[in-house]
Amino acid sequence: MVRLSVNVDHVATLRQARHASYPDPVAAAGAAEEAGASGITIHLRADRRHIQDDDVRALRRSVRGKLNLEMAATAEMLALAPELRPDQVTLVPERPDEVTTEGGLDLAAHASRVRQAAGELAAAGIAVSLFLDPQREQIERLAGLGGGVSGFEINTDAYTRAAVADRAAHLQALAAVAERGHQLGLEVYAGHGLTVENVGAVAALPHMQELNIGHALVARAVLVGMGPAVREMLAAMRRGVDG
């Protein structure tokens, strides 16, 4: 079964809207794991718009599965990561004026910086993943980075935004980069914009090992609770895998 990592960033977004002590992303993470999530994902942004440093420390103490920390390859974050001790870091591009991450890393422009960051993180005992658009050229550049990177997360944004009639072509692109990543011996993950309605086909892709899902789950949890929301998503993933 494909694993589900629940992103609890937007639990913190609700909290920060009032600078209150609630809702607590640590409690949300616990409820997600209790409902069957295999891990928790968080994005520590430079502007600290949702997750805070102390959230990461508290989650490190409480998360039983894999703690995946999304971050930019900046000096500040690379200094923090060994102290925060996530199981995995996913390097992502980050701009202060974006609402959410808008695309994958550009390895043509930033290969040297990503290689250096991956090496530092791997030396600290942290697994490294890269958030990449489903483009064959990006995967080939990933192959040229050398050691340090153990996996990659495919950006599913274009697939989730496509009209239903156009999704088959996007799925083919996702499948192609997943296959190439598998050939390179890399862990294959995916995420961005996935919902109960569109997740099944992505979960069913060959070599898919983990999906990172946040906004849809937190939005649903506002209405039904985190546990039911996670169970609904896992059921949709199983339906996709089972055909």
Question: How is this structure best described in words?
Answer:
The model has no long low-confidence stretch (mean pLDDT 96). The protein has 243 residues and is an alpha/beta fold. The chain has helices at 9-18, 25-34, 53-62, 75-84, 107-123, 136-143, 157-161, 167-183, 199-203, 215-224, 226-242, and strands spanning 3-7, 39-43, 66-71, 88-91, 127-132, 151-155, 187-191, 210-213. The chain contains 11 helices and 8 strands. An 8-stranded parallel β-barrel has the order 1-2-3-4-5-6-7-8, surrounded by 5 helices.
Which key terms come to mind for this protein?
single chain; 243 residues; alpha/beta; 8-stranded parallel β-barrel; 11 helices
Which secondary structure elements does this structure contain, and how are they paired or packed?
Blueprint: E1 3-7, H1 9-18, H2 25-34, E2 39-43, H3 53-62, E3 66-71, H4 75-84, E4 88-91, H5 107-123, E5 127-132, H6 136-143, E6 151-155, H7 157-161, H8 167-183, E7 187-191, H9 199-203, E8 210-213, H10 215-224, H11 226-242
Parallel strand pairs: 1-2, 1-8, 2-3, 3-4, 4-5, 5-6, 6-7, 7-8
Helix pairs in contact: 2-3, 6-8, 10-11
Brief overview:
The chain has 243 residues and is of the alpha/beta class. The protein is built from 11 helices and 8 strands. The chain has an 8-stranded parallel beta barrel, surrounded by 5 helices.
Helix content: 40-55%
The topology string of helices and strands comes to EHHEHEHEHEHEHHEHEHH
Strand order of the largest sheet: 1-2-3-4-5-6-7-8
Query: In percent, how much strand structure appears in the residues?
Result: 15-25%
Major sheet summary line: 8 strands, parallel, barrel
Determine the structural class based on helices, strands and strand pairing.
alpha/beta
Unreliable spans are none
Oligomer: single chain
